[in-house]
Structure formats: structure tokens, C-alpha cells
Amino acid sequence: MTDAANTPAPSDMTPAKGSLHVLDARTKKRNAAEARFRIYGLSAVVIGLVFLVVLLTTILSNGVGAFQQTFISAQVYLDPAKLDKKGERDIEDIKKVSTFGYTPLIQQALFDKVQELGVETPLDSAKDMKALISASAAAIVRDEVIANPDLIGQTVEFRLLAASRVDGYLKGRVTREAVARDKNIDAEHLDLVDALREAGVIAKGFNLSFITGADASESRPEQAGLGVSMLGSFFMMLVVLALSLPIGVAASIYLEEFAPKNRLTDIIEVNISNLAAVPSIVFGILGLAVFIQFMHLPQSAPLVGGLVLTLMTLPTIIISTRASLKAVPPSIRDAALGVGASKMQSVFHHVLPLAMPGILTGTIIGLAQALGETAPLLLIGMVGYIATNYPDGLAGGFVDPNSAMPAQIYEWAKRADPAYYERAWGGIIILLVFLMTMNIIAILLRRRFERRW
Amino acid sequence: MYDAVNTEQSVQQTETKISARNVQVYYGDTHAIKDVDVDIADKTVTAFIGPSGCGKSTFLRCLNRMNDTIDICRVEGRIELDGEDIYDPKVDPVQLRAKVGMVFQKPNPFPKSIYDNIAYGPRIHGMARNKAELDEIVERALRRGAIWDEVKDRLDAPGTGLSGGQQQRLCIARAVATEPEVLLMDEPCSALDPIATAQVEELIDELRQNYSVVIVTHSMQQAARVSQKTAFFHLGNLVEFGDTSQIFTNPEDPRTESYITGRIG
Ligand SMILES: Nc1ncnc2c1ncn2[C@@H]1O[C@H](COP(=O)(O)OP(=O)(O)OP(=O)(O)O)[C@@H](O)[C@H]1O
Ligand SMILES: [Mg+2]
User: Fold this and answer.
1) Chain A contacts of B168, Cβ < 8 Å?
2) What residue owns the CA closest to ligand 1's atom 22?
3) Which of A111, A96, A103, A162 is nearest to A138 (CA)?
4) pLDDT tens, position by position, B117-160
5) Looking at residue A395, what is its pLDDT?
6) Which residue(s) pair with B47 in the sheet?
7) Which of A361, B100, B195, B212 has the fewest beta carbons closer than 10 A?
């Protein structure tokens, strides 16, 4: 080594092939291309985010209303002369009194309240209160009395559901202009509502029964809830999970690890990929033909819905399971075989645990897809008016007619009353919460299984 | 250059462990192994040398039927272990592989703890009746793999978290834990530093007391140091097979000579 090599280059030396301090034309062009690409990418992300924000704000602003409901508090005198004529407190007798027996008591209670507050109003009879109170309020009071007959003869404080129009007025959905053409309610009633709201008799509160309740008839949107169809969805998901996970994983393991690679397995493979792209309505009509018309399973039952959704979910699970099995390095299989493990031991002891995060993610995404699926349910009658209450027991849950969350939302969106429109949005919020939860579970499971190594 | 050879002159006459006759291997239409006849002696280290792609690994994998896992691979001819044809339809390759263990070119520990890596084989073969016995097997194997001192305090740590060389010694320990009769090693030292290599070579020499060891290597020195028999492969043919000292000092075939002197390969 000479000294010259160690001393810094003198300034009069010029690099042979151009200075590093000057960008040459090619480098400039490449850098410009890269900068352009970054801008494209960034704008794509921004556009996507904007859409997401718009979507979420729309859903939230339209849907939060459904989680609030207007209630009227009133002290109802449960008149024994009307509710239990014989006075024996015999539950059978009490049950004979229908909601029509209760309606006048409730109207009277509210009318008394108005008189007591001294509100000035041209409405001068208890019957005029009808427009303010939900038709289902009587049913709620009656249920309470049947559950607890000792209440008869007492004056009991009730939080009664307000009529849908009153609810809409409080939420700003029903305006005075619109009321002019409305036969359900008029301006005098709205004046009374204003006064009662001032007095704290009418107020908005959290709407638990929207989450837990059943669907209601076209004319009683204030009572409709998503609870029963949530149960329907739940039972369907149980069926889907119980069938598609074992079948899908077993099929993928067989195809990926054990099946000979020949024309037949190639055809099967292509068909599975194609099945994943088949429109879901096709599965619906298949379910109608096979499960209902041929096998005579009950219509509108979560069992059938679950079977149809299983058909739909299977390809998703098989494809993702096979992909994650493929991603396990072959050296692991060699290692297991090398110490004398059988094929099956190598798969179940080594390959499957490594593929687990992928399998679980695929399964949960498949389930989430199935949970949001509507079209096939329309064909097997899992959409419609299910106002009955909860199925009585686990077995009933699978075979009793029910709806599902997305089908219920579709049903509400179809109805004419704008109050139902609000509930459809609210239902979508609940559905999204479920989907988000499932995705979070998928992520957590993934982390948990991956963090082991 | 090959002084070490002289120290290994005394090769005892031992019985044949594996005998291969007229072996052909095809990958689809490619004829990867052609007419190979070889006798692998018991309690001996046999080295397979030859240029890259000549079929050393392929032939090695025939000896414990690992080639069964490659769909397009077809093996013809007769390979006997202790006089029994290992390609007989009655033979379960799983049983065979318990007798003929293998260490692969790339370290491939299971993504499990160091302990479980070693214990897996003994467990599935039912070699330990209780935890204490298993612990003993694991310790013995790790000691023989020349890695015990480095891992004895972290047996619960993942095997994949070790360095490349440690992983390879772990794999060797895993292979000896099941007490195979034959140990096949495909370039076991290609990821190791000289110190670890020396340890593995020492281990191989020790294993020779009980087992038959077949090692594929690209290092002439290593072949000369550890083996008593050497087989030279070239383009799928077994060109020359004989005592290591003989091959390295006085090869018969000109191809062998040019390979070991560095002219082909
Ligand atoms: N899975 C396979 N499919 C098709 N051809 C293969 C396969 N494995 C090996 N071959 C071919 O068989 C021939 C022998 O390969 P092999 O791996 O046995 O060589 P090798 O001697 O071990 O080489 P190296 O020293 O580089 O490891 C090569 O021509 C290779 O291309
Ligand atoms: Mg090789």
C-alpha cells in the first residue's frame, strides 16, 4: 500500500465517468418515474379513505337514530273492574282480557297526566291520546300484568312506547308541513307533544328493544327490533361453522397433501375455484330445490339457510386453507418424514399448526361473508315478517322460521314508512359491528398463533 | 494436502449394510441416476462426492425413500437394507425411515422448542416410557450433536431462533435421537463455520462406532477427513467407488482425478 492511496483525492482530480454530484439523465428519469408512481399510489389510498369516511358517516348519521326511541312516562291505574272482572286473580281470566282492554286505561292515564299538568289543548277526551301512544304499548302493559297479576288494582308507572310519528317528530323526521297531509297525527297533537316534552313526560331514551326485539308490523316501526333475526343469523352461523370448517379443512388437507396429482384432482381444483365465483343467488335456488323441495326441510329455517351458506362458504375456506398449507415450507414435511413420522403425523403435528392462522383467517372471512349474504336467503324464504318472539330452545332455533340480519334490513328498507328506513340504517350499523368484531377476532387469532414463534 | 487420509488407513472389513444394484432414477423424462451399484458397509462413513447436479442427493434420498414424496420421481433397481428390499411393496417407508435417518442440506428445525425438536422422534416411536426417560434421551442426543452446552439453559426456546450452524447441529441431534441404524447426511456442514464443522466431523467419527453414515459433501478435505469409503458421481453415473485413501491418492478413473484435483466440477 502506498501513501497515495490513503490521502484524500486532491481537488484537481476529476472522476473518470462523470461526477457523483451531478444526476445523469437516466437517473433523473428513473427518479421522476418513481415519484410519479408514489403520487398515484398515495392518491389511490386517499380516494379510498375518502370513500370510507363518506360511507361511515352516512351510515352513522342515518342509523344512530334507531338506537334512540321516544318514550312516554305515565301512571296507569290497572283497573280491576276492567282487567279481572271476577276479582279472583285467576291467571286464566286475566289472560282473557286482550290488549283492547288495556288501551283505554293507558289513554286515560295519559289524558289524566295532561289535565294534571294543565296543558291547554283542544284535545278533550282520553281517546284523543291514541295518536301519541304506540299501538304496542298496550301489549307491553298486558305482558307486565300477566307476569305479575298482583299489580292489578294499583297505579303503576310505565314507560310507554310513543307512536312512530311522535318519535319522528322528536328526531326531526316528521315536520309540521308533512303533518298537514298525515292522517295519523295533526298539528294539535304536535303542540301537545311539545308541551309534554317540556314537562319531561315525553323523552328520548336508549332503545334496547331495537337490539333485542322482534320485527313488527308495517304500521308499528317504533316496536321493530333486530334481536330475533340476530338469533336467526347466529343459528345459521353455527350451522355454517360446524359444517364448513371440518369439511373444508378436511377436503383441503386431502387435496393438498394426500391426493394424487392427476387429471381428476385438477378438475376438482378448477371447479372449487369456480364455485367461489358462482353468484350467491345460484346457491339460493339450489338450496330451494334440494333442501326444501327435495329433502322437505322446513322453509325459512336457519338450518336450511345455514346449509345454503355452507355451500357458499366452503370454496372460500378450501381455497384459503390450501393456500396456507401450500405456504408451509416443504422442508418441514421432509424434516418430519426424515425422523420417521407418517404422512398423517407430519401433516397434523407440523404442517397444520403452521397453517392454522391462515385457516382461521380464511374461515372467519368466509363466515363474515356468509353473515352479510342476503340473496340466497330470499330464495329459501328466510326473509319476511317474523314478529313472533324468540325460538323456544336450541333445537327450535334451528328449525323455527326466522329471518337473518341482512334479510331483515332488506325487508325494512323495502317498507314505505321512513321510520323503517332509519331502522334499516341502524340494522346496518349492528351488522357492521358484528363484521368488524369478526375481523378483529381473525386478526387476534392470527397474532396469537403466529406469536408462538 | 490429504495427510489426514493416512491416519484412516485401517478400514476393518465389515459387513454390508445397504446394497444397491442397478439403480435408475428418473424425474419425469430426466434420467438422474444411471446404473448405480454400491455397497455401503456397516460402521463405516461413506462419502458421496461429485460436481453439482450429478445426482448425489437424489441417490441419497433413494436410500430412505424420501424420493417417494416427489410425484414425478421414479426409482428402478434393487436397494437392500440388511438383505431386505426396501422398495418391496410390503415395506412401509415410515418404518424404513425410522431405521435410516436423514439430515438435510438446509437446516430445517421444527418451529417448536429445542426440546420438542429432539423429543418428537422418540415420542412418535414410543421410545420413552416417561418424562424422565425422554429428558435423558433429549440430553444424550443434544450432547452427541455437540450443542448441549449451548442450549441446555434454553430448551424451551424455539429451535428456529438458533443460528444456522446451531440449527444444523440441532437437526443432527434430532436425527440421532431416534437411534437410526443408518444416518444419511446431505451436505450437513455447508452452513457451518470451521469450528462447528470440526465438531460435526468429530460427531460423525463417533457415530461410526454404532452406525453406518453416508455423507454428501462438496469439500474434498472433509471427505478425506471423515470417510473410509468414497463414491464419486458424475452426470448420474457412479464413476468410482472405493477406499477413501485409494480414491484420493490413486484414482483409477481420469474423471475422478480431474475432479479431486479441481479441473471439473
Ligand atoms: N425434484 C426434482 N425434480 C426434477 N428434477 C430434479 C429434482 N431434484 C433433482 N433433479 C435433477 O436431478 C439431477 C440430480 O440432482 P441432485 O439434487 O441429486 O444433485 P446433487 O448432486 O445433489 O447436486 P448438489 O451438489 O448441487 O446438491 C439434477 O439434474 C437435477 O436437476
Ligand atoms: Mg444436493
Assistant:
1) none
2) B57
3) A103
4) 999 999 999 988 999 999 999 999 999 888 899 999 999 999 98
5) 67
6) B215, B230
7) B195
**Residue B140 to residues B145, B174, B176, B180, B192: CA-CA distances in angstroms?**
9, 11, 9, 14, 22
Cross-chain Cβ contact B104/A345 below 8 Å? no
Of A321, A313, A426, nearest to A366 (Cα)? A313
Question: Residue A243: exposed, middle, or buried by beta-carbon count in 10 A (0-12, 13-18, 19+)?
Answer: middle
Give the residue, by CA position, lying nearest to ligand 1 atom 24: B52
- Residue B215 pLDDT: 95
CATH H-level superfamily of A227-449? MetI-like (1.10.3720.10)
- Distance of residue A326 Cα from the nearest chain B Cα, in angstroms: 15
DSSP string, A342-391: -HHHIIIIIIHHHHHHHHHHHHHHHHHHHHT--HHHHHTT--S---S---
B124 at the A interface (CB within 8 A)?
yes
Burial of A61 from C-beta contacts in 10 A (0-12 / 13-18 / 19+): exposed
3-state secondary structure of B27: strand
SS3 state at A29:
helix
Give the domains, in start order, of chain B with CATH numbers.
4-108+181-260 (3.40.50.300)
B178 closest CA partner among B213, B133, B214, B126: B126
Residues in Cβ contact with B48 at an 8 Å cutoff, skipping those fewer than 6 apart? B56, B59, B60, B214, B215, B216, B217, B230, B231, B233
C-alpha cell at A221: 316501526
Here the cell at position A310 is 355452507
Whether residue A423 contacts residue A66, with contact meaning beta carbons closer than 8 Å, is answered with yes
Reference A56, options A442, A433, A440; nearest CA is A433
Name the segment(s) of chain A with CATH classification 1.10.3720.10: 227-449
With 50 as the cut, is the pLDDT of residue B97 above it?
Answer: yes
Q: Which of A99, A88, A133, A86 is nearest to A113 (CA)?
A: A133
ipTM: 0.86
Instruction: Inform me whether the C-beta atom of residue A350 falls under 8 Å from chain B C-beta atoms.
Output: yes
pLDDT of B116 > 70? The answer is yes
Which B residues, 18 through 37, put their C-beta within 8 Å of a C-beta on chain A?
none
Q: Is the pLDDT of residue B84 over 50?
A: yes
DSSP assignment of A289-341 = IIIIIIT-PPTT-HHHHHHHHHHHHHHHHHHHHHHHHHTS-HHHHHHHHHTT-
Residue A206, C-alpha cell as written in the block: 336508549
- Find where cell 335456488 sits: A285
